[in-house]
Amino acid sequence: MTERGRAAAFYGVGQPFRINEYPVPEPRPGAALVRITLANVCGSDLHVWRGELDPAKRGRALPIHQGHEGVSRIAALGEGVTTASDGQPLAVGDRVVFGYFFPCGRCRACLRGKEWCCPNRMHHRATPCDDWPHFKGTFGDYFYLYPNHIVFKVPDELPDELVAGVNCAMAQVTCGWDVARLEVGEQVVIQGAGGLGLYAIALARERGAGRIIVVDGVTERLDLAAAFGADELIDLRELPEPDRRIARVKELTDGWGADVVMELAGFPAVIDEGVRMVGSGGRYVEIGNISPGLTYQADPALWTIGNVAVLGNNHYSRQHLHDALDVLARTRDSYPYDRIVSHKFPLGEINEVMAAQDQGHITRASLVP
Length: 369
Ligand SMILES: [Zn+2]
Ligand SMILES: [Zn+2]
What we know:
The chain has two domains: 190 residues, Medium-chain alcohol dehydrogenases, catalytic domain (Quinone Oxidoreductase, Chain A, domain 1, Alpha-Beta Complex); 144 residues, Rossmann fold, CATH 3.40.50.720. The chain is built from eleven helices and 16 strands. The strands form three sheets. Strands 3, 5, 6, 7, 8, 15 and 16 form a seven-stranded mixed β-sheet that branches. A six-stranded parallel β-sheet has the order 11-10-9-12-13-14, sandwiched between helices. Helix 5 links the parallel strand 9 and strand 10. Helix 4 packs across helix 10. 48% of the residues are buried. The site of one zinc ion (ZN) has 5 residues, from loops.
């Protein structure tokens, strides 16, 4: 009998996830199969669950095997796959992190080393998980790594709980600060202290940022931001009007404004105030909003008169995943990474987990297959 594995399948907005079973695929030449050991619920999973990022409206075929953040072990290697993306030998059983998207390596963006801009990188989501190779997400037993995949071995001393957030949240903000070209001494504002926001604090500090200001409105998240070394916290409940928050940022940056503001809250409404927090000639990095059609009333004169560069960023390159893992290993005692994943649940509780994290009191839940 063919071995089977489970996959949490998304059937449409407002419908519960179903745990489907599919035959475990044999990797084709150049591909690999990993066995998921831990998978995190990311903010973008919540965007899908809430219906803000409706896959059906984007022409994606249902059902979709949901989830993209996680850590795993190599279950099988396709013909010709003998090494990880940095040339280290790779074998069945090795613990690995992987890119959850697949840059083609042959388009104009890939040629220029900007794999995160590759228009073909999410090709695996074009077909439903009922179609081979079925395992196209991380909420389940397996994930199929198509050819041209990104994969790195995890150092033994890093437990799964610490590593599970690297292949989305941590690598994403590593690329984000790169896109922003964050320089030593620059003052930054981070909008949103969820998983991405917390990694962003650590990465900004490691890049030599000056004052780091974090904006959020949930006690647990603000406490974690402080534990990660944020210099200043702006609590939405204490300063409920955007104008007062903008004034506070100006006050904390000698009247100038931030050199870089990074948006990691995922709500269009925060963009206008975020852009107003940027000092003249600064940069605004947009990462959190990934739902086409969800928008806000923009004032483009803020960008022109303020000479503000607005930089969008989605996904990362293999170098960013490699570097994020390296920073994690080197700084594991300097930041409380172990507090980012706040709760662990069995895969079967996925519907309850989505609802709980949506409330904001769970920073990042992990699903154990
Ligand atoms: Zn994510
Ligand atoms: Zn490409």
